Request: fold
Amino acid sequence: MGYNFNGIEKKWQQRWKENNTYRITENSEKEKFYVLNMFPYPSGAGLHVGHPLGYIASDIFARYKRLQGYNVLNPMGYDAYGLPAEQYAIQTGQHPQVTTEQNIARYREQLDKIGFSFDWEREIRTCDPEYYHWTQWAFIKMFNHYYDNAAKCCKPISELIEKLSTGGTASIDAACTEELNITADEWNAMDHKAQQETLMNWRIAFLNETMVNWCPKLGTVLANDEVVDGVSERGGYPVVQKKMKQWCLRVSAYAQRLLDGLDKIDWTESLKETQRNWIGRSEGTEMQFRIKDSDVEFTIFTTRADTIFGVTFMVLAPESELVAQLTTEAQKEAVEAYIDRTKKRTERERMIDRKVTGVFTGSYAINPITGEEIPVWVSDYVLSGYGTGAIMAVPAHDSRDYAFAKHFGIEIRPLIEGCDVSEESFDAKEGIMTNSPTAAFADCKLNLNGLTVKEAIAATKAYVTQNNLGRVKVNYRLRDAIFSRQRYWGEPFPIYYKNGVPYPIPEECLPLELPEVEKFLPTESGEPPLGHAKLWAWDTAANCVTDKANINNETIFPLELNTMPGFAGSSAYYLRYMDPRNHTALVSSKADKYWQNVDLYVGGTEHATGHLIYSRFWNMFLFDLGASVKEEPFQKLINQGMIQGRSNFVYRIKDTNTFVSLNLAKEYDVTPIHVDVNIVANDILDIEAFRAWRPEYKNAEFILENEKYICGWAVEKMSKSMYNVVNPDTIVEKYGADTLRLYEMFLGPIEQSKPWDTNGIDGCHRFLRKLWNLFFDKDDNLIVSDEAPTKEELKSLHKLIKKATEDIPAFSYNTAVSAFMICTNELGTLKCNKRAILEQFVIVLAPFAPHICEELWEILGHTTSVCDAEWPAFNADYLKEDTIKYTISFNGKARFTMEFAADADKADIEAQVLANEQTGKYLDGKAVKKMIVVPKKIVNIVF
RNA sequence: GCUCGAAUGGUGGAAUCGGUAGACACGAAGGACUUAAAAUCCUUUGGCAUUUAAACGCCGUGCGGGUUCAAGUCCCGCUUCGAGUACCA
Reply:
């Protein structure tokens, strides 16, 4: 009979469910530990073997921590709102709710077979009104707050209104869309609607007319991180720029805190670097330039204030409002033609085709320091969204300006000693400044000659500030998040519109449930799918949803038709797991205080600039509100690598139905054909299965090598079309969940991407069988004895305990699995069947292979779960040696070995080495210059 | 272009503070057991050369230098691959 994994795994999965083994409460004397996986989007394809990688890794850690005595929260849920379900609904008319629930059921079934220690009573789904209640709640809070720059936290909008009505904008220092200048009198003179519109300038959730990434094919806008290479991340459809009124979140207000927070968390350096680049802090100077013969002034941003004397032209972004103001009558036609042309180009076209283009506005700006007249141009290489949408161009020291100047024949004026700008610009921020004007601009008091670039930047900044020509400014690349999606399957905004002014519905009326619609497509008039909803108006008298037909009534108003994007629901879910059934708060302060934040977060790097930025922002906001006790949600982050597919090929001889084995294929003219990896084992094709796979292969002939058909292979993305998808269920059926768990960990370092390759799985399975055989003889008789273990057995066990105790916290799971194999082999050789040894072995292995360990634990006579056992303490005494073997080297080359007593001191060892006959032989009369005795068992003699 | 990261047998991968490579597993070859197969167990397995045999020897961690008694590991200069980002002024 032996190791019957199928029976064992079913039995224990059932038992865990019945006994609520993984149910966790916060009412514990124990110290907490919070483990979290990025929750999955339940797609229709189900799980493949790559998905559980991170779940297994975190499950091992959770179980390990539990054995160490911690109260471990290890929850799971579903990120259930999303585009694929909606696309599917459009095509088939099936309600996304229905397909999503089917997919979730399938996921759950698959997950259950792998033996995770999830507390399923805490399961959450983002599409559940109970859950999105709190997504909407947070949105209303963001609507009702602004960000106070001086206090570095958010404050209620009512405080801002108070300030505006008493001191105007002069009295506030707050994150805003644009700098406004309003006096208290002006503010107080505004009507209600105008005031509300003005407040959008500061709200953290605000409506704004912005250029957005519009994807016509998907019929929705996309956030910057959802656009890759100018096409949509999902589907790969073209994206164009379009101006639309959208809800936005003022993520940029938190840019500095998002940057600073990175120093306090334990993430990989590369991921932090990715976020730093995404936030893109740059310190520079803003300077005012006046237009010649005009009152118009405009501001530019530069990080190279030192190059002010090298400015030979200015450039405006085509979208800039200044363009119309500055274009002279003579240039009007040319400028308009140019702007028309750039508008038509998509983001993608702009990226592929980087020809230098531009047009002169006809106006001249005055250099504020030298008084020089500088032509102002328009070009699409300047972006409207960054800085001020206008630049001072210094062709000598900026490659883009250089290309522009060369193309249009504009002067290139070098400012750094010895730099050669005849072929390309000198962009480096190093060198000594020269060419500061002296005689030519008599008024100019600034002389940078002889300074380094760094000093020159500082000197210019100081000069500009002192003379009121501009100010020091920090810019961030990080943009505000566009928060509206023209979709059905997402969280509705808790917003209604009265006379065009948005108002949140009262918090006590949440959740505002997603209404039913007849069709999931946009309406004929181009409204989002919610435009189809009949019951989609807000009755402010009754505080409830009502029929749209009643809108003529004075108290009934239309509700927002957009829904929230995918990242809305995933931004604070970790808090909800702490207290998932709370009806009165996102999380009770008691639960929040107990669980604090996530100690270990496991997920893919692909979320570096999306989810991981948004959730940090969202959580910081909740922290400011006092709704979360920690500023950073995820203390430690591990990025599991992707598991790629390993495709197999057969080689068909052209125009025949004959297939030739890999190593003979080069002798023929062959076509490689993908073959289903599930009918290939160790690259050997199951010929009968192949003939049965497809009708056209029924009569296939084969040219074999060594009577086998060897398939070729390649690493590709795991996908249906490559026939390389491996299901965890298949593996579980064939080898068991414990083998799957061990093998996924054994494949390699957790953070590394690697192809799924079943070739090695037998080794892991064999290991479990060997372990089983330590307990039973051939006839299934239990052979465990109560004898005292020998010194050697204890040594083997404690080597394992030491390794596991070190490797698990370091996430070096692959070497930990090796250690189990080594120990099993050693115990097998020693024919060890001692209870004292096996019992501890089982505890240490339990995080990796929980089913077999529960079974063996029970066989050893325990009535409680192995989950509640105590992690064995490592005892170094067992590893102590009586003697230590040293390698004796001469000039670094190892020659022979010698044994010494473990407590021998350095002088002892030296004396004995010198006295040894072999030493004499190798020294051959030469004098010993130096002898190094390394505690790591090496003696090196230098002669 | 810029910023990170990586490169070790036939394969996946080990190697802590620099300590004398290749753990563990797969695959392969040979053997034991068996009527046979499966399963299990044992031996060999980086390369080269040598020997009756054993031991020993030489070369080996992408390439070229350097530091050190000692380098896969540290430093300098390259090559290749991967990831992120990109008119960010």
In short: The CA atoms of residues 495 and 504 of chain A lie 4 Å apart. The longest strand of chain A covers residues 205-215. The mean pLDDT of chain A is 88.
